[in-house]
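Notebook B, p. 112. Complex prediction, attempt 2.
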Amino acid sequence: MTAALLTDMYEYTMVDAALRDGTAHRQCIFEVFTRHLPQGRRYGVVAGLGRILNYIKDFRPSDDELQFLRDNKIVSEETIQWLENYTFTGTIHAYREGEMFFANSPVLQVEGTFAECTVLETIILSVLNYDCAIASAASRITSAANGRPCADMGGRRAHEDAAIAASRSAVVGGFVSTANLAASLRYGIPAIGTAAHAFTLVHDSERDAFESQITALGKNTTVLTDTYSVEDAIRTAVEVAGPQLGGIRIDSGDLASMAQKARHQLDALGATETKITVTNDLDEYAIAALATAPVDSYGVGTRLVTGSGHPTTSMVYKLVEREGSDGLMHPVAKKSFGKSTDGWRKRALRAYEYGLAQGELVLAGPEDVVNSWDEDTYGDTKDLSIVAIDHGSIDESLTTREALFAARDYHKRTLNELPVNALSLLDGEPAIPTEVITLV
Amino acid sequence: MTAALLTDMYEYTMVDAALRDGTAHRQCIFEVFTRHLPQGRRYGVVAGLGRILNYIKDFRPSDDELQFLRDNKIVSEETIQWLENYTFTGTIHAYREGEMFFANSPVLQVEGTFAECTVLETIILSVLNYDCAIASAASRITSAANGRPCADMGGRRAHEDAAIAASRSAVVGGFVSTANLAASLRYGIPAIGTAAHAFTLVHDSERDAFESQITALGKNTTVLTDTYSVEDAIRTAVEVAGPQLGGIRIDSGDLASMAQKARHQLDALGATETKITVTNDLDEYAIAALATAPVDSYGVGTRLVTGSGHPTTSMVYKLVEREGSDGLMHPVAKKSFGKSTDGWRKRALRAYEYGLAQGELVLAGPEDVVNSWDEDTYGDTKDLSIVAIDHGSIDESLTTREALFAARDYHKRTLNELPVNALSLLDGEPAIPTEVITLV
């Protein structure tokens, strides 16, 4: 299955009709944005750009897929031929991965002909809507963890391929490792793991299980201690591994008091360097509540891969300018009740004072007017978009493993530039206001 | 990326240790179940079995993946060789796709050696946790739609591959069609589509857009009417297509009153057969509220692919019996606080009275005792599990397209056997009680 079929049928039938009437070749600008952040959220985090670029690079149906379109009379032969030769020749501006976004932030701008832009709508939205949801949750989770490392253990609670994207997006939001081998192979994210209860249960005793694990994986391994009694398990594990035991994991019960007791017990046994990992439906709230407990790292599953209550991002892909029959670009907007859009290409800036972000400016208008806008009115500003594809030429550096880890650094840095209320876990207003200014 | 790497690292490191100490070869029974339905839900719907069987059929790492495991020293060479030759030789019992499940329902039972069962944990859970979440939501949505057809339009709001699984699971829950071409190609689900606002906007006028669409797709097409004024759009569309216009779509505003007004207007124009489709963040509640509106079909997106508030299912994979050093099978259970398990293989029955389901019986105990249990105590009962894999031999009929549509029929039939409160959208108790009975 190629990226070209990860697509809603109407993208192709619209192109089919537009190829017949000639509008398929009109120059267009589409923008991706959300009308609102999820209820109460202070900011969103962009993720998925690298994945989108890889899809665009290979966006062409296979022979089988073309035959399917033909057999089912979904499009005409003219459109089949157009798809056979598809190459995106347009330009994409985008927010960096790791960048914050707010309502109306033009996260991605796609310029090209109506046809070449339209067929990319579904895949672009699928990637952004999922990846941004996970990165946004991950950022809140790692903020709550306040420097203690967070590991993605959510693969089993997500669709098996979404799990890989979730591991990647978690890194953008500050996670350091993943349990998922596919994500480790594909993106170079460090793989981690402990053991499951079944491993203890398949052995005749917990001691047998720990001996086996420590023999195979070394003393630095992390043993799971809550199959029977945590206290007994810790005593056994230290007897088997000695005080060099790498770590223990607790996966049930009152994690704070259990971690505290475990720490005291480990210290009393001389295992002062043994780490304590906790897991069990953790999210940013549960982790914040563990701030004073002697926990060394967190394994986060369900709540990470489901966006901690917001599993999608409500991003939409809207036409904002298009060439008219006069050959000139015109702003366009729909008037749908409660879902109207703003015409014109946008230029997004973040305004700063003393290095702290004060607001998001979204300027709409003719390109020359917007670009010559006097920035001084708002003090220091930073343009938020970069060029990801320039007339068909993809910036490959944005698709590398290095780019993923750079996105994490970038996110951490820019998050620290937001007002401190951005880090509040309480529901509230966006961390900074967004002002949409139409310059015409 | 093969199914074998869509896996948490610890599955392989546990096998590595177990191969060294010999427990890898112990016969085991693992069971998949959830400890509780999502808050307030009356029932869950099984989906994903066909996908799981396909993954098990091909579960073997590629050469690149084996090299990754070797290079990163994740497992020993002995384990690499074991993985190279992996074939599942065990037996899987499962609830049918479309079957209802409740807390503690043994949805899937995996029997085989510890090693061959352990490596399947992650992929089995990923598939069931996502697919059951979507099928469960779809079932509530189609119940609320009460016979009006529902179409999946959620691909853009989900991870791009999860979108395909969502289309499939939606069918299990009663959906009739999908916008997603990949799902249509893979599973034979009828593809549907209308047009986007961009199609209207790229044209010089709404009339130009409708003329183009109707020329390309015929009069039976569905036009999108809320780009500007719905009333004007309907008038224009009927002028262009005549009263044979196939359908209109409304995607914003107060859908009930807009549909009512549209119906009156269409009828007045003679377009009495023109269908009305509504979309816009619909879920079971919104659809229930549209019951009296003259709507012909629903397009459902975000809320379908995110499980209508419950995007995962909390299924777990637990060891319940294993061979001991005496060569006999023994029940095993963990005691983790709040997450303890019940030992012994389970046998699940549904009890009926006058053809109506009265309760779920989950019998635990030695196989012969459980199988000879006297069913008459509970009146009519039905065994809920079927054999999906018998000593390595997969029942291929469960992986076909026909099986998917049969699952939809089966679901509808068995849902009608539940007490009518199952269909309540209000939060409440499970539709029928589950009793776990240990027979030892």
